[in-house]
Amino acid sequence: MQKYWDYIHVDYDSVKRLADEVRIPVVIARILFNRGYTTPETANSFLYPNFSDLYDPFLMKGMDLAVERILRAVHNREKICIYGDYDVDGVTSILIIRDLIQRLGGNASYAIPKRLDEGYGLNFQKMEEIISSGEVKLIITVDTGITSVQESKYLKEAGIDLVITDHHEESSEKPVAITILDPKQSDCGYPFKELAGVGVIFKLAQAIAARASVDLPLFSYLKIAAIGTIADLVPLVDENRIIASLGLKELGKTTNLGLRLLLQELRMDDHEIESSEISFRLGPRINALGRLGDVEQAVELFFTGNRAYAKEIINEMERLNLKRQKLENEIYNTVIGVIESNPETENQPILIVEGNDWHLGVIGIVASRLANQYYKPALVVSVINGVGKASGRSIPDFDLKGALNGESDLLESFGGHKMAVGFQIKKENLPLFKARVNERISNMLDGRLFVRSDKIDADISFHAINPELMHYLDMLKPWGHSNARPVFCAKGVTLQSLPFVLKDKHLKLKLNQHNRVFEGICWKHSEWKDSMKSCNSMDIIFHINRSFWNYEETIQLDLQDFNPVDF
Fold first, then answer.
1. Omega before 478 cis (within 30°)?
2. How many angstroms separate the most distant Cα atoms in the chain?
3. 3-class DSSP state for residue 419?
4. DSSP at 252
5. Element (H, E) at 468
6. Per-domain boundaries in the chain
7. d(Cα 31, Cα 13) in Å, to the nearest integer?
8. Rounded CA gap, 145 and 384, in Å?
9. What DSSP letter does each residue of 98-137 carry, written as one string?
10. Based on CB atoms within 10 Å of each CB, which residue in 33, 203, 394, 567 is the most buried?
11. What secondary structure letter does DSSP report for 145?
């Protein structure tokens, strides 16, 4: 796999002018410039996220109708069912809208399809259960529904009103509903299109708060919305940045019993929580229930007042997360074996691997790992009873859904977005699908290869890395999609002491530049040890992090790559 260092070039005078006008260090102004914040107004808006900068929720198409129908249902004591998705975004969306309806005095239940048995989206079997109860008059979808055309018609025939809230791309035909809240609708003029599903629900909560006579805890909802927003990997810019930033600041102070116990279990309750802790610790545990267990337990965790029951759910989360990791690694190792034994597969522009009865709850994670490992789009297909069920993940700047749109005639179902897709295909159609997709992507690339690049924000001297810089870097958080951790380059660095291996895969070392020494860590790169030992000097690229050990905070460099320097 090719890899190169890519310096982001900007005009120094413009960066210096921004630094002077906003009163920030030049290196911070350069990072802002690299991300497109080139004026004092945009830079200050980014550095100081403010609740008052959220857009008017009534700018979203259909918001008036959604608020009116929900408030009417509450007033008339109609039974409402919230229909959600089985991931963190769906769960957090249910939490907010259910709590809101209950605070208004309404009657709201919820339904979540089982990933393995019922699949994504509005499900006829689940809807029949709701209809047969004879009680539900209104269904509110969260994080799903925008492509459920036939299912929406079925509900209309049954006399049940439908309010759809979603954030996915629409299909050519719109569902039948009282109203649809989705900023990605082509005829929706909402200023920000990249909200998560829970972000759309938060906007709905804002709108209802403006019309209802009951005070609603919008700032408490921000904490929950932050979890779903970060876990769903939407761009952390604009409104998503406000939601994530303000929500994270308050998350550790939660009084919700279930959430507080979960944070304590994960040792996330004694500090300001980082976005990476949501992505890699809290989020996967909630998702584990949706992948391998009963996701409704995740909702119950946040609503229960029973400490013992909450602990029971948390223990189940942990058990299933460990099981998920085991299944994921087994399938991943199997797939790697398939690829290594078949060079033709690896040399294709897109990785497409198939196997029998791979667990559907983890193939998406495997696809993500493959895309990162080989730096090309990856599709993992699990064939069950003659039908392939697939999850795909892409790499930055490649629209995977767009690349697969032309193969819809071979697919039984298909959906997703630029970075992730899912589909079903008959096993007998797989060979033709592989051939057509690889030919299509080869033509799109026109002989070019996918090349991983490390985009370098700025050169920096070790002497410039200090607590003041850390303070300003904190202002750029939370890190995430479209706001990645800054990458710095330091030149002429030497080893202060010999590197040593941690847990058979990581490398710990001390680095010296001009007699300024920092500890460094190379995650999953123990193979660098001998090459580094033989270097007289090297250039390194890295993130700057805080490290906590024995109640002591230090600055640590997280190495991304290095180049030996010959004298």
1. yes
2. 81
3. coil
4. T
5. helix 467-476
6. 3-47+454-565, 53-251, 252-325, 342-450
7. 14
8. 26
9. HHHHHHTT-EEEEE---TTTT-SS--HHHHHHHHHHS-EE
10. 203
11. -
Walking along the chain (567 residues) 10 residues at a time, the average pLDDT comes out as 79 96 97 96 97 98 98 97 94 98 95 77 86 92 93 95 94 93 96 97 98 92 97 95 96 94 93 92 95 94 97 97 96 95 90 94 94 94 95 90 88 84 94 93 75 90 96 96 95 92 91 96 90 90 86 89 82
In angstroms, rounded to a whole number, what is the distance separating the alpha carbons of residues 406 and 436? 9
Q: Residues 271, 249, 194, 85: what is their CA dihedral angle, to the nearest 10 degrees?
A: 70
Architecture of domain 53-251: Alpha-Beta Complex (3.90)
Separation CA 116–CA 114 (nearest Å): 6
Do residues 366 and 331 lie in contact, with contact meaning Cβ atoms separated by under 8 Å? yes
> If DSSP states are collapsed to H, E and C, what string results for 19-87?
HHHHCCCHHHHHHHHHCCCCCHHHHHHHHCCCHHHCCCHHHCCCHHHHHHHHHHHHHCCCEEEEECCCC
Where does 3-47+454-565 sit in CATH, by number? Answer: 2.40.50.460
* Torsion, CA 499, CA 279, CA 328, CA 333, rounded to 10: -30
Closest CA to 284 of 239, 318, 251: 318
- Correct CATH for 342-450 of 3.40.50.720, 3.10.310.30, 1.10.600.10, 3.40.50.1820: 3.10.310.30
Helix (H, G, I), strand (E, B) or coil at 325: helix
The tokens describing 416, both together, are 């997703």
